[in-house]
Structure prediction request, 505 residues.
Amino acid sequence: MPWRARWVVAGVWLFFMLIYGLISFPNHYNFRTAATELAYSLQIMDYHSRGHIVPRLPSMTNPWMDEQDWRTDAHASPSVLTALPFYWIGGPWGLLVHQWLLVGFMAVGIFVYAKHRTGLWQAGMWGMIHFFGMWGVTSLMAWDWHELISGIAWVPWAFYAFETKNKWLFILSWALFVGAKENFALWGVWMALLMFIFIYRRAENRKWLIWAALGTLIWFAVSYFLYKGGEKGYSRLNLYAYLAAHDPIAVLQGRDPMPSFSFLRVAKTIFLRPQLIWTLLFDTPYPEMVGVKPELHWAVLWSGGWSFVFQPIFLLILLPVYMYKLLSADPLLWGTLYHYGMEFAAMLPIAVLWTAERWKGSVWFWVCLVGGALGAHLMNISLLDSRYSKWYDPERHRWYSPKHYRSIYCYSKVHEGLQVIPKEAAVSATSRLAPHIPPREEYYHFPACKNAEYIALLRHDPNPWPISTKELHRFIDSLEKSPKWEKLWDKDLLVIFRRRQPPSK
Prediction:
């Protein structure tokens, strides 16, 4: 590759990496990262740092723990061990840098793979530009740190390693991919089998895929028993329990009780009631969520999903992703927000590349590659303007808006106040504040207090989920009048309370 070409590719990579840095880092500085992901991840990292290979059930992600004495199950994510050095060096900032660098590493993987397939660095560059334009990447960086990045970043490298017969790189990339989340393990089994049966039928190293599928299936079985939650754990499999009912729609609408989860009954519904599954892939039982699922399909289509017409195998590869997202009872998974679009960000540039190869040597080759990249960016810009996906926060995403860089909270002054909380003391904090407090074993998402010795809150928090700003003010007033709590700090919109007597066990 000529030196001038290297400078062009490096310049494009640096340009988009700068944009994604401008999305991610100001969000944490301005207190927009949340307990549900970043603080949860910090607690998992803290458990690993204390020597737990299988982390204990985290206390951070259940803000109703005082009423519902369960803890969210930990994901089966050994791939996150690659983030530990970043955590040790920089805490939450280290994790955000880790995610930012892995996005860049994934983009390089797309470039290397496309260049290998076509022999053209220009094709690699447009594949990389396509990836950088995916709304899934933008939404991930506008959210928090998520464990899936430790695995999904290796998908293009796994394709590259298999096709170049680099055995050890394939083992490494595949293991990190399926080791990021338990649903990635199931997706990996499906992907490996499709690659074996349909894509690489004549490859000499085809048997690698059978070993990959078998090893991944064993890993899923082991991880399910290691991480399933225990007596007080809550499994995310419960999000699909409604499919075990005789009338799943009635369950979702609250007319019938939620049944217990059953692999057998859910599988029976999926295979014997295709009309219901088809409906749920496009429609919603919740009137307030109209438009969210169709928006996802529209975004996929314009970001390269049109290539499924020429490469239907990629639609089959993504089928488990569609089902995992759209059959969930949780609307958060349906749309284009948060980390739930990264599977499409990984596969659509590859699908467009394979489609373009049909016309290599003609103008249509470049029409496909350039058109795919431009379509992804136009879709991304459109979603930055407005979207049906609920809970879209423009200030988190719009890196080009002055509001993105402004906050009513002063980072240095808030952190000065947080120093009054002892390092190992049990603490409860609102969602935006929790990621700024060093993790510890008893680390709660307010309004859950449980055994907390300290409560830290931000006044005028615009989104103290799961309570409203008015409810937060009432909580603060109540704590100020409570004989059980004393106010230690009340400056710069930060208020900290200390329990006057030990909590009752």
User: Anything to note?
Assistant: The mean pLDDT is 93. The beta strands are 71-72, 233-234, 427-429, 443-445, 454-458, 485-491, 494-499. The two ends are 66 Å apart (CA to CA). The first strand starts at residue 71 and ends at 72.
